[in-house]
Recover the amino acids of this structure.
């Protein structure tokens, strides 16, 4: 559904995926492999993640095939044999995917999806898998933190101009909606994802009229049912008084001013003053919309200081997840040809074996702890989070409606105890490894040490 | 040239651009406007910027026209009149663009481009203009800092898996090349931009063989002319010894091991130990390639501590510009219908009038200071940085070859004194405003205060 999800996705990859594949092909290594996607550790001030991005990923896997001009490019690199290129031409993704559903909460170290496929297929998709999941999860998480700070006030994604490219802008709009936002300023995202779109005027609009009040009146003429006035171009308080004048004129004409927007200055002080001006003039139903460099920390702070704001436009700092602009995600092989594997590189240890994540809730439904276990374990009174979503390269379910995913998130977020949702210094949610999985780790680690390091 | 630069770009925009345009249309406001793009202030640890992204932007402007299904979507929103939608259908970008060339260095507050066009056209392109320039400039700048840290060691972009989407991955590959990198792991970027591509193997490759040395041998068989061995999957030092074994075997077969790669652990200590092992075995021509969580700070630090590394793969922290993930860029109207304008919003003041940037160098060619002046000023012995690159909606020059842009950057970067290139606490490069431009600011500000604030 995203932008250009159909072109050259197969070579949207790191070269090493292709060189490894070529070697596997030469060596006849076609046995099934299992890869696991997880986030190694929390970035600063994060204590949970929100799953997003799976729909794009499944679309990519289902339609995976190298296109002729991409194969011609690979041929021109002179790195690959014609036999291997002929193999790539026929290659489709025939594997299966087990995954946590979009909108679910997950925690560091636990897998959010596992892919089982012939080695070359499972390896070739690595770069795209990480890219497709990493950023949406990052943004849905950031959005949920804004929601946590804003309480019942509405949040709108305003980030497109400063997202890291256009694809990022679309991903932010979709993922922030999953994470509790009510819509976006991004028109293309509105079209592609059916999201509510928001927007009124910029400072340049006000400046292009001889006087500020001319701009307000013109906008009310063109959009009488949808008038939100930006009042801080020259002076916010003076702007609020002009908005009141226009609100009176609109009322006389049978319309109503919806809101005013503040985009700069001391939002606590200004919002209170503007609220008084509006209320004093009999316009208490006119809401106050704030924007300008906001994030969850700022929203929490200004509300705590008594700001009178009804809705927030959150831009750049949401759109790049400014305080934590990436997740330390990894897609690691955990089994090849029936043999569990892991790596021992310092600080980057992975969990061998095909796995399941189990979630234990208390009797009020509050999340208590998760367990990472082996795929075929049964953990009583725990919910298994992995579902088989793709088999033999085919999706087992159609794309889920975004509103369903968003509701799934909101319901589970309400079940996550507040202590794990603090914006700073949140408690660490308990994630345990089952005894059977631990035994497997110990066994594989010791075998590798024996084999590669002479038993040390 | 980028990914999907041809689809729905016109609605890759904030909704308010369209609501403002609709109101301008209703009001008959078709006079020319001038907008100026600039970065308000430096992010932490930045002291200059590198210009990138213009080529994509000019492509967007030249082919600007609303597509039928996008217009249908706009109609379904029920926000716009059919007259306005018919106007949009015919709309093309007919304006001109003056800009600093890609690869040039620029500084905060000075414009990097100005667009002159009928108001609606100049306004509608705002979101895309900022999005197209902001991120490439951010990344070219980050790349140049890595170059500053790495000296004459080679740098390769490894970021694709964790860039904020796919478009971001392409933009990172292109912009980091401009900023001095030698290539990328991103295969699609290789195809689209003609960039050198790099890559060999991941840890999973090593793990899928019964033993590490089997993996090394297999890779050398498939890529005898291009063998780089990843040696840290289990134990870096043990891996280096196995690499030596394979290097001997390759030599016997008439080939040569190119390099080994370290991706984890203490790179200072390990690179020295690995260098000794290689040198001791007679393989001093085998280079050491390092990756894993690197950025300019880490590269500077480990080289200062004596790491023996010949080339770096720089990934995530380059790809999202992790320490400064956005620029505070703004696209502001500076003149409408011949009347200079600006806004007075707290902390967000813009410079009215149509401008030029002048660069003064000393007699050795070192950059000394910049002046922001009016378009028609003459500043003696200063180079004007703005060039007219688009007129009447048509590009005046074809796309520039990337290598030319990269050379332009490297040459000017060498002329920027070291004191402005320090990774931390760099000196602030002097940017002044000419007396004529200052007079205009004072005049416009005082007029606005009189008009909007009752002369206060």
């Amino acid at each position: 559904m995203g932008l250009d999800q159909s072109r050259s996705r197969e070579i949207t990859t790191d070269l090493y995926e292709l060189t490894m594949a070529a070697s596997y092909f030469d060596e006849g290594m076609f046995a099934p492999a299992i890869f696991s996607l997880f986030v190694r550790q929390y970035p600063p001030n994060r204590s949970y993640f929100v799953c997003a991005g799976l729909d794009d990923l499944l679309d990519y896997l289902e339609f995976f095939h190298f296109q002729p001009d991409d194969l011609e490019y690979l041929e021109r690199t002179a790195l690959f044999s014609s036999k291997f290129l002929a193999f790539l031409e026929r290659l489709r993704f025939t594997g299966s995917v087990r995954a946590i559903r979009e909108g679910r909460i997950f925690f560091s170290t636990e897998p959010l999806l596992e892919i089982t496929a012939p080695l070359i297929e499972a390896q070739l998709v690595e770069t795209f898998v990480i890219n497709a999941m990493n950023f949406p999860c990052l943004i849905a998480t950031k959005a949920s933190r804004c929601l946590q700070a804003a309480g019942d006030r509405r949040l709108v994604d305003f980030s497109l101009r400063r997202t890291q490219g256009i694809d990022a802008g679309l991903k932010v709009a979709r993922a922030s909606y999953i994470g509790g936002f009510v819509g976006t300023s991004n028109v293309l995202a509105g079209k592609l994802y059916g999201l509510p779109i928001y927007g009124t005027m910029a400072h340049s609009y006000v400046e292009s009229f001889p006087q500020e009040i001319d701009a307000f009146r013109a906008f009310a003429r063109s959009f009488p049912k949808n008038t939100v006035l930006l009042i801080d171009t020259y002076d916010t308080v003076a702007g609020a008084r002009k908005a009141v004048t226009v609100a009176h004129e609109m009322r006389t004409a049978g319309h109503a001013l919806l809101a005013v927007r503040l985009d700069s200055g001391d939002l606590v002080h200004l919002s209170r003053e503007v609220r008084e001006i509006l209320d004093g003039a009999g316009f208490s139903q006119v809401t106050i919309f704030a924007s300008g460099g906001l994030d969850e920390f700022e929203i929490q702070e200004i509300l705590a200081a008594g700001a009178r704001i009804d809705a927030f436009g959150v831009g750049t700092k949401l759109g790049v997840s400014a305080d934590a602009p990436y997740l330390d995600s990894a897609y690691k092989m955990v089994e090849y040809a029936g043999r569990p594997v892991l790596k021992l590189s310092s600080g980057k240890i992975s969990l061998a074996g095909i796995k399941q994540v189990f979630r234990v809730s208390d009797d009020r439904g509050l999340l208590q702890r998760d367990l990472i276990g082996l795929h075929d374990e049964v953990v009583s009174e725990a919910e298994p989070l992995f579902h088989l979503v793709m088999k033999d390269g085919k999706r087992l379910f159609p794309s889920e409606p975004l509103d369903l995913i968003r509701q799934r998130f909101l319901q589970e977020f309400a079940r996550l105890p507040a202590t794990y949702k603090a914006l700073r210094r949140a408690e660490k949610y308990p994630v345990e490894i089952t005894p059977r999985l631990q035994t497997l780790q110990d066994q594989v680690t010791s075998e590798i040490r024996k084999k590669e390091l002479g038993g040390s």
